[in-house]
Specification:
Rossmann fold, seven-stranded mixed β-sheet, 7 strands, 36% helix
Length: 253
């Protein structure tokens, strides 16, 4: 029997995850997570001095049903400057139905995507690498992302850093792994998102309990990271994996 490719394995993992319904945006804890992440994104854009979001170009890899791209539109990005690539046909069709026509969407394997080098301000990857269990495949995808980002832009990363012992389909991606995947980058990060099992329990008690528990940084399991690509003048010189001054004092895994 022919061994499965990593893309085939990813499709199976996502199918099992979707069947649980645990990440339905209608769930109260998921809404809290998404709103919190949006606030963190806004803070990151402000730190970057991105006061011209309508001029910024973003490509999302693993865009799913289009929820993140919809939020970027609401934040002020222009549809014609946004694009997404999605491996799974069903999720791609949902994204196409949900997003305005000027948002460019592509269905297929991002590693095979013929995308212009140095053409976007940011590549967004949200809970993508934790579903890639093949390290060689991770490196291959990271190389592609880095190629597409313009100098001075970066990879906008959201994912969890610790393993879930009850879910063999995913694996946490610690900061040191992010740094290894983008060795030329300058890494800044912020810890976000209450551990999902705790979030579900808290919201069953009361929706407001999410914010109470999430005030404790050591209960947050994800990071929102910005991996900046040095510009042609070499302005970004901090080694990857070392927090920038703006992130000093934040908790790290």
């Amino acid at each position: 029997m022919k061994p499965r490719s990593e893309t085939e394995a990813v499709a199976e993992r996502y199918a099992r995850r979707a069947a649980t319904g645990l990440y339905d945006p209608a769930r109260p804890e998921v809404r809290h997570m998404l709103d919190e992440r949006e606030r963190a994104l806004r803070r990151r854009f402000a730190r970057l001095g991105w006061h011209d979001l309508d001029e910024r170009r973003v490509l999302e890899v693993g865009c799913g049903a289009g929820g993140n791209l919809q939020r970027l539109l609401q934040m002020g990005f222009r549809a014609e400057h946004l694009a997404g690539v999605e491996l799974l046909p069903g999720r791609f069709e949902l994204a196409r139905a949900a997003l305005p026509a000027p948002v460019r969407l592509i269905q297929g394997d991002a590693c095979e995507l013929d995308w212009p080098a140095h053409s976007v301000d940011a590549v967004l990857v949200a809970t993508v690498f934790s579903s890639l269990l093949d390290e060689a495949f991770q490196r291959r995808l990271a190389t592609a992302l880095w190629r597409w980002v313009r100098p001075g832009g970066g990879v906008l990363w959201y994912d969890f850093t610790v393993d879930n012992p009850r879910n063999p389909d995913v694996r946490g991606v610690p900061l040191r792994r992010i740094a290894a995947l983008f060795p030329e980058g300058r890494l800044a990060h912020e810890r976000v998102t209450l551990a999902p099992p705790l979030a579900r329990l808290a919201c069953r008690i009361h929706p407001g309990a999410y914010g109470v528990l999430n005030a404790l940084p050591w209960l947050r399991t994800h990071v929102l990271a910005w991996v900046e690509k040095p510009d042609n003048r070499g302005l970004a010189s901090t080694p990857a994996g070392r927090p920038t001054a703006s992130d000093a004092g934040r908790s790290s895994p």
